[in-house]
UEVLD enzyme
Amino acid sequence: QYKFRDLTIEELKNVSKTYPNFTFSMNTYTFKDGSQKDLLNFSGTVPVKYGNSYNIPIQLWILDSHPFAPPICFLKPTANMGISVGKHVDAHGRIYLPYLQNWSHPKSTVIGLIKEMIAKFEEELPLYSLSSSDAARQSELLSYIAKITEGETDMKSRSKIEGKSEGCFNKITVVGAGDLGIACVLAVAAKGTADKVILLDLSEGAAKGGTMDLEIFALPNVEISKDFSASADSKVVVLTINSLGNAQTYLDVIQSNVDLFRGIIPAVSHYSQNAVFLVASHPVEVMTYVSWKLSAFPKSRVIGVGANLDSERFQYILTNLLKAEVLAKDAWVIGEQGEDKVPSWTSYHLVAHQTEGVAARNTREKVANRAMEVLKGKGQRSWSVGLSVADLTDSILKDKRKVHSVSTLAKGCCNINSEVFLSLPCILGTGGVIEMVKLEEDPVVQEKLQSSAGSIHDLQQQLKL
């Protein structure tokens, strides 16, 4: 059942050579949402020097998407050991490390993970020795913790008591705790569609800036976590992460983002296998393509925010500033986000368009050009993109069947033959893209879309997935 069996076996052989005390077995792991899988796991001790020398017992569970997803790591305290809750260990013995958060194959390995684990444990010892009386009193608690470390949870029973199954929740996960991620959380929470909003903060160290403020001024139904499993069973996963590396070229910047996604998409996909992925990272067309490839989700369930914000603004400008409400009804901004976006019309009213005279068509084009000029003066700040994301998630969760201009696989449209994502009018529902809406045939628009598709495809060919 392991997707990359040979790579996994090869790596575990290396682990066995370096740490011969580890024992390997196949057991059932129960995730937080109650789902179960038979997973390979290994247990053993790692040597830690903290004044004296200690052997710290650990257990690592290997996901079936390994080595593209990081292991799930726990301490395995014996009856005479207590857990020292700290920066890298929680009360249940779950281990959190920067190495896990930044996991990216082939750079990341289990051997490298264990080395960092040892280094962090030498800074802050994760276990302490209990007296015999303490050990006796805590034996029952440790028994429960042992169940937790094997992946068991009482979440299902709690859900039943509350009268609502966790699987029925409208749960949204926002990946990335930068300005855009926090803006998305606030906008989605304000919209009130989601029962639960998870902010997955993958940054290193303690909470900073907006994340810290979210913790201080706690919002109902909003949870901040560094644990991928917190995203389990999400209906929508919003991706806002962008690499802040020191890349020198545009291609290097995008490759850095791709490397970041390689450590995130498989893990998030594993925990929310029926989710709709909504990509807001830059460049949105390329990163939506990358998310589609890495997740192996159907194209309908991987979309980018695309020109949804521009389209909503475009329609608003036509209706409220230029008083062209009739034109605004089926007007869209499509194509590539940025300078190469283009106005177009869907074919809902093709009959009316076909009967338009030359003068009427010219008037329409002039009004559209004026609207696009106004649009150029509007930036895309984090909060405005957050509002657009909330708008899209609302349509998905409520199955509104509303038309949005979003980045979707454009192959087969406008004579585009390559696998590229462009913003096109699509009907959205609980399964993501339900249907692409037919555009009015316009040679100029088609030429621009084909040009964008060509440049995006060339860029994608240079990336290492």
Summary: The first strand starts at residue 23 and ends at 30. The domain at 5-129 is CATH 3.10.110.10 (Ubiquitin Conjugating Enzyme).
